[in-house]
Amino acid sequence: MDPHMVHIRVVHGDVKIFPLEGLCFLRRHRKPTLCIQVNSAFVVYCTVGMHGSKTESTVWRKRQGQKVWELLSAMYPHAKIALQYTNPWELVVAVILSAQTTDKKVNEVTVSLFRKYKTIEDYVRVDPKEFQSDIKQIGFYKSKTQHILAAAKIVQEKYRGIVPKTMEDLTRLPGIARKSANIILGVVYGRVEGIAVDTHVARISQRLRLVPPLALRGKMKRTFVRSGVEILDYIKDANTETIERELMKVLPKYIWFDFTYRVIDHGRALCKAIRPACLACPLKTICPASRVEQT
User: Fold this and answer.
1) Which residue of 39, 170, 200, 244 shows the fewest CB atoms closer than 10 Å?
2) Are residues 212 and 252 in the same domain?
3) Residue 212 contacts residue 201 (beta carbons within 8 Å)
4) Residues 152 and 123 sit within 8 Å (Cβ to Cβ)
């Protein structure tokens, strides 16, 4: 190979050859853009397109999704929801409490909470200040108290104490957005209408390019350096509903429910936000964001 040329693979696109001098990645551009400085005399900006057309890009992501699914299935065959509950309403409570809080902490609090509040009527009757005291170990406990008690009243009065069975009705409950509704529908009723996108799913789906980060909006870009090149890792504040829609395009519906929990387990075990354990990861050979040097 010409020592003055370098091969650059942009996300999952074609291999392009560019002059080595002054090569850098411009973070301010949403599209893959390379800055090539020739002999320190002038700078040429060129936008490098993704591999083929939009359709071909989707085809690549579908193939990637199948590889990822097979590997994750082998690694985490028994992945399931970590929140503990004994009935549908308790799951609603646990899901609301889990926002920006670890499942481990939620489970620690709900052990005594569910022992004290046995029926939905108990939540309707309780004084808000007393309930706040019961969950004060949880972050944002005041707003979560408002959401849980208001949701209890709606479920009791409008749905006769039965947790709603549709996405539309569930997302009308305070504290329940689409991610939470996907979890409740899938776990309680076996209904799969989408993919629950939590922080692990959002991060890992971008790293594996099942969802191309450059197609997402967000200001909190995370990058890392591999072989002297700055690489976009993922966008931390990307819209989760956009990520869900992109995943639904490339993953078959029959894996949507289990996909979430296998990715979550992978995020907890290896693919952490900071210092992911790429050397130990079986997905490192197919992960564009792997820290392992590519050969």
Assistant:
1) 39
2) yes
3) no
4) yes
Comparing CA positions, the residue from 245, 263, 223 lying closest to residue 28 is 223
Residues 31, 288, 220, 81: is their CA dihedral positive or negative?
positive
Domain holding 25, by residue range, is: 5-47
Half-sphere exposure (CA, 13 Å, Cβ side) for 242?
14
Structure tokens at 263: 């990715």
**What are the Cα distances from residue 160, in Å, to 30, 47, 153, 157, 224?**
49, 58, 10, 6, 52
* Residue of 189, 230, 231 whose CA lies nearest to 207: 231
Tokens linked to 47: 């936008």
Decide if 119 contacts 158 (C-beta within 8 A). no
If asked whether residues 31 and 174 sit together in one domain, one would say: no
pLDDT of residue 10: 42
Which residues in the chain belong to E strands, given as ranges? Answer: 5-9, 15-19, 24-25, 33-38, 42-47, 221-226, 229-235
Q: Which residue has tokens 């504040």?
A: 237
d(C-alpha 126, C-alpha 117), whole Å: 9
Q: Is there a domain that residue 204 lies in?
A: yes
Identify the residue whose tokens are 């690694």: 75
Task: Judge contact between 255 and 67, C-beta under 8 A.
Answer: no
204 in the same domain as 70: yes
> By three-state DSSP, how is residue 45 classified?
strand
Q: Can you read off the two tokens belonging to residue 13?
A: 């696109």
**For residue 49, what pLDDT is reported?**
36
CA 100 to chain centre: 13
